[in-house]
Amino acid sequence: MTEAAAMNAPEAKSTNTSSAQPEAMAWDSKSRRFVLLYLPLACFVIILLFPFYWMTVTAFKPNAELYDFAQHNPFWISSPTLDHIRLLLFETAYPKWLMTTMLVSVCSTVLSLFASTLAAYAIQRLRFKGSQYVGLAIYLAYLVPPSILFIPLATMVFQLGLFDTPFALILTYPTFLIPFCTWLLIGYFKSIPFELEECALIDGATRLQILWQITLPLAVPGLISAGIFSFTLSWNEFIYALAFIQSSENKTVPVAILTELVTGDVYQWGALMAGSLLGSLPVAIFYSFFVDYYVSSLTGAVKE
Amino acid sequence: MSATTAAPTWTKMRPKQGALSRLFDWKPFLAFVCLLPAVGLLMTFLTYPLGLGVWLAFTDTTIGRSGIFVGLENFIWLADDPIFWNAVFYSVFYTGVATIGKFALGLWLALLLNQHLPMKSLLRAIILLPWIVPTVLSAIAFWWIYDPQFSIISYVFVDVLGWRDTNIDFINTAWPARWSLIAANIWRGIPFVAISLLAGLQTISPSLYEAALLDGASAWQRFRYITFPMLLPILAIVMTFSIIFTFTDFQLVYAITRGGPVNSTHLLATLAFQRGIPGGQLGEGAAIAVSMIPFLVFATLFSYFGLARRKWQQGEGND
């Protein structure tokens, strides 16, 4: 009881001050906000960003500094060097890997966008009998993970004669891109007023004209979201690229770094980190331009 | 009189359609054509391989030789294989612990981000970064962080803080390696969970909190009786996805430990890869991959129905 009374005294004071400004809640005092909000938030941000910082620092450190924590503070670079980047760009096939990855990502993104726009339009706008079941089936296809499919796909790719070519990846990546994009675009088409299409129909437009001239221009933000999402997903894909590609020059960046740069027992950590950094940069830059689309597509797809 | 004569002239005004354009205006045909690319691609490269994978699991196919039907032999062989059972155990353990960690921390982060903050959109962009960057590349960074000799974490604990005398062993013995991989997975999973749940939090009407405050509800009560139930539908979907993609995870483990030390950190996916592609035993690899399916179906049903059930209990319609 006495404890409660003692607690009450400062409580009463704080309620007095807060009654002056009714908007502020009792717990909204500055120090408390610091401990409960900014401190944990800072911890989250530091932990989430630390591996990238460490990657960057390692990529620009000379080897002498890299393996000697006693002489040099490991958190900082005393004499930055571009040696690792030079090694990567001029003594490995890194530029070629980047080009392959770019080619594969762009082609599979375009292919999936084309297929899923038509599919989403058919499911959402043409509303034929059983269209919602087709939509459900495509949604379920997203839940089939690549780890289950890569072995049978490897045998198929081999029989089709696509093994070790970029086509193996361009044709298989849509298996996880199309379900996602279709799902996203169905949601997007839903938000476009149907009346616009009805008006066009009355004016004598054909359905393909409506799709091309009315619906698609209105769905551009949705198409951008689906596009960047597909691009990042195909850039990051690993297991198919690991299983279907054998020769060094056809590898994508994530696979090539892990299989070509890791040689022998002594790891070239500087070059590895430089490779990871350069491999992450294109998606990171791409993402930073479209971050709002990205977040809205991520959350929009989850909400659907 | 004039109205009846006007009608035919009006129909003539319509542009004449060719047979082809009429065909494309015919709804069933148009729907078929529109669905063809997507459904065709998915059928060829998703449904067919799924069936083929199940078939391969019952054959003794190796690379370069199409196998014959051997019945349950692959599965019987796997049932006696301690490495397979270890992979099953670690897959379940990895999924369980990582999912709990991701959702606890992700929900916390989402609640923090839901407050009034300066530079909110920049913060959101930064937080999503671990999720954008290719998993293998961030896994390589973790591999370097977990290095036995030059680990930065060891450096902090041994040289800066002086709490330990020896370097921390991250990935060279079984249990530390298991926990290290789970930590890396949680690190990678937090952003997705946090941003998705944040979107869910932002749809909750502030008037509910105002009403609760008027009724004298404590912060915990507001979380327990408003935030949590309102968040459940979205939580169910995000969790279903998270469980499926954690259980079938491949990249992190393959990049950091390749299933080692002594096969202790194999997930089913990495074991299937190791046996199937470099090992050449496609049939056995397919059997391991197929054995993931029951777990996936169970996890999906559990998380989806266990959590989504609440939706109609709240009296919300299906949207």
Automatic annotation (TrEMBL), chain A:
Statement: the UniProt record of this protein carries the keyword Isomerase: no
Keyword flag Transport: yes
Subcellular location: Cell membrane
Ranges in coiled-coil conformation: none
UniProt keyword annotations, A-Z: Cell membrane, Membrane, Transmembrane, Transmembrane helix, Transport
Membrane topology: Multi-pass membrane protein
Transmembrane segment boundaries: 35-54, 97-121, 133-155, 167-189, 210-233, 269-295
A Pfam family hit: BPD_transp_1
Domain (ABC transmembrane type-1) ranges: 98-290
Cited InterPro entries: BP-dep_ABC_trans_perm, MetI-like
Chain positions covered by the region annotation Disordered: 1-20
Protein family per UniProt: Belongs to the binding-protein-dependent transport system permease family.
Protein name: Carbohydrate ABC transporter permease
Native source organism of the sequence: Falsiroseomonas tokyonensis
UniProtKB/TrEMBL annotation, chain B:
Organism: Falsiroseomonas tokyonensis
CDD domains named in the record: TM_PBP2
Chain ranges passing through the membrane: 29-48, 87-113, 125-146, 186-204, 225-247, 286-307
Protein location: Cell membrane
Predominant subcellular localization, coarse grouping: membrane
Membrane topology category: Multi-pass membrane protein
UniProt entry tagged with the keyword Membrane: yes
Name recorded for this polypeptide: Carbohydrate ABC transporter permease
Keyword annotations from UniProtKB, A to Z: Cell membrane, Membrane, Transmembrane, Transmembrane helix, Transport
